[in-house]
């Protein structure tokens, strides 16, 4: 299964929420417009038409009016001669997609892109963790040159996906590799963000690409983290440097740089203990690791990756701010996108900080971490096909 398929399938909650929300926004406004037009031409009996009636029934009633009042750009009847009925797949059923026969004859509702519609789209994006400022910017760009025009749900989804891709295109960058050996990559983040697993996956992938990789198990306070890295090291045939539990992680980092240099390693991946961004003592410890590394090599660390847990939502923005102050974060890795219905936080991060997003993770397997592709992400988030 391609990474995009995994991403789309595992972002199912988020994409279905956006789809349902956009459907409701368009349908509610479209019905109101049709009802208003019908009332202006031939006032119906009180019980004849209500907001709860299907739009198809409203349209049928309007067809008897002498002068046409329903423009084809507002409601279009899509038909297909003798369609081949196919059962939707598992993902299609989960996302509530209809069978081909059901889709063959459907009413496409369009609604004028006005202030009321934009406000509801903003609210929808905010609930997807995109943040207020980013949601406002996205909808403003969507409206540019299109305000007052009638648009369908599919058109809005395409427009939204294009705007998300535009914001994220500049930050979609792979982890840079330099001629400098060893290239020191410091990996930081809060407790439980997925640092250790990310390091294991990166080490395995770089090793498979022919790079000489060394791992330093710098989380000396958590035995499970060391054991987890040793498992990955064995699996990828990558050496893992450790120190006794409770040892100074800065000293381990220094020794690991010496060892990696002696072995001619291309990459040294240094794990660090998870620390809350609002704990000054723990953040100072991280600053010490950086200072000690720079005593060995003033240009190191050459990359500082901040691993973020997608389920933390907008709190991820606070984490970026605080870690940037002490560790000079150079790039981001977003994990656990399979565990959240609010993937919009990645858009907010790109919009506010402009830091490179090197990779995203959607599971525990080695191939569940891949380079970030903005178009694939935007399409997965909005429920579109690539």
Properties at a glance:
386 residues, alpha/beta, Rossmann fold, 2 domains, 8-stranded mixed β-sheet, 3-stranded antiparallel β-sheet, 15 helices, 11 strands, elongated
Describe the structure.
This protein is of the alpha/beta class. It has two domains: 3-170, no CATH class; 172-382, Rossmann fold (3-Layer(aba) Sandwich). 49% of the residues lie in helices and 13% in strands. It contains 15 helices and eleven strands. The protein has helices at 3-10, 12-41, 55-62, 90-94, 100-104, 115-127, 132-143, 153-168, 195-208, 223-236, 249-263, 280-296, 315-327, 345-353, 374-382; strands spanning 75-78, 106-112, 150-152, 183-188, 213-216, 240-241, 267-270, 303-309, 331-335, 357-361, 369-371. Strands 6-5-7-4-8-9-10-11 form an eight-stranded mixed β-sheet, sandwiched between helices. The chain has a three-stranded antiparallel β-sheet with strand order 1-2-3. Helix 13 (315-327) links the parallel strand 8 (303-309) and strand 9. The longest helix has 30 residues, at 12-41. The protein is elongated. Residues 48-80 and 85-104 have low confidence and may be disordered.
């Amino acid at each position: 299964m391609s990474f995009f398929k995994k991403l789309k399938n595992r972002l199912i909650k988020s994409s279905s929420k956006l789809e349902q929300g956009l459907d409701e926004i368009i349908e509610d406004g479209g019905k109101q417009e049709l009802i208003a037009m019908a009332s202006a031409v031939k006032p119906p009996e009180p019980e004849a038409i209500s907001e709860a009636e299907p739009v198809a029934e409203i349209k049928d009633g309007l067809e008897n009016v002498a002068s046409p009042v329903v423009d084809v750009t507002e409601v279009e009847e899509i038909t297909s001669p003798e369609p081949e009925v196919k059962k939707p797949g598992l993902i299609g059923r989960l996302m509530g997609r209809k069978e081909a026969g059901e889709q063959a004859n459907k009413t496409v509702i369009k609604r004028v892109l006005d202030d009321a519609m934009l406000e509801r789209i903003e609210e929808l994006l905010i609930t997807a963790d995109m943040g207020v400022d980013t949601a406002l910017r996205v909808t403003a760009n969507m409206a540019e040159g299109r305000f007052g025009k009638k648009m369908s749900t599919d058109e809005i989804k395409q427009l939204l996906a294009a705007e998300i891709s535009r914001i994220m295109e500049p930050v979609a960058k792979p982890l840079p590799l330099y001629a400098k050996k060893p290239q020191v990559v410091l990996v930081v983040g809060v407790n439980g963000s997925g640092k250790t697993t990310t390091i294991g996956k990166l080490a395995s992938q770089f090793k498979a690409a022919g790079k000489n990789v060394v791992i330093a198990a710098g989380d000396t306070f958590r035995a499970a983290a060391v054991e987890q890295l040793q498992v990955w090291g064995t699996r990828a045939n990558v050496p893992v440097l450790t120190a006794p539990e409770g040892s100074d992680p800065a000293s381990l980092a220094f020794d690991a740089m010496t060892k990696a240099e002696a072995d001619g390693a291309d990459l040294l991946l240094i794990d660090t203990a998870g620390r809350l961004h609002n704990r000054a003592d723990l953040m100072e410890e991280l600053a010490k690791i950086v200072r000690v590394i720079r005593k060995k090599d003033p240009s190191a660390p050459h990359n500082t990756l901040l691993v973020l847990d997608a389920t933390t939502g907008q709190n991820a923005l606070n984490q970026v701010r605080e870690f940037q102050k002490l560790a000079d974060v150079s790039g981001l890795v977003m994990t656990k996108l399979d565990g959240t219905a609010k993937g919009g936080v990645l858009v907010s991060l790109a919009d506010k900080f402009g830091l490179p997003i090197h990779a995203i993770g959607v599971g525990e397997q080695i191939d569940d971490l891949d380079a970030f592709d903005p178009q694939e992400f935007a399409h997965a988030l909005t429920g579109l096909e690539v």
